[in-house]
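On clarity, I found the account of how folds are encoded harder to follow than it need be. An entry of this sort, consisting of the sequence and the corresponding backbone structure tokens, reads as follows:
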Amino acid sequence: MRWLSLTLVVLLMGLSACASEPPNERAEPPDTVATPTPDPERAGPSQGEAIDAGIEEAPDFEREQLDGSFFRLSDHEGTVRVLNFWATWCMPCRVEVPEFVEMQDQYRDDGLLFVGISLDDEGFAAVEPFAEEFSVNYPQVVDDGELTDLYGGVYGLPTTFVVDRQGDIRARFNGRVHQEDLEPFLQELLAESV
């Protein structure tokens, strides 16, 4: 019984760790909340918090993708891009991915592109089996810490940035973002002209 209790405590600590432990402590976290506003009934460590990213231009980057080709953010101007910093060991990240896959399928032709930015130390060796298991249908790249710095620091996983068709960061979600919160916001951005 003691072993079971200890296992449960370790598991719960691990679940909360990916939403609360900062993998990058070099920059100060943003502190202003913006729309879309999270549902207070689901507030907590599993609820994404929308943070005003200052409506600034998203920094461009180029990284190798899982398939060996290269992904450059600026090559996708005119699309709404969702940049998701995640890791295979992060439980809230694992819950988000199937929803992202569904939205990518549904809104691809409308100009939506999710981009997974993995922080797994094992790189593509960890990402590839996960991507196959969950039928991930959007680009996957691996970050060595440079992209988290470029985007002002990532203080827990998952962290998601939403970039509009003009290339401006319109929202930052710290923690798990629920599809019912993200999808209407993406629909609004997809309705905007370039």
About this structure: Strands lie at 49-51, 62-64, 70-72, 80-86, 112-118, 140-142, 159-163, 169-174. The two ends are 60 Å apart (CA to CA). The longest strand covers residues 80-86.
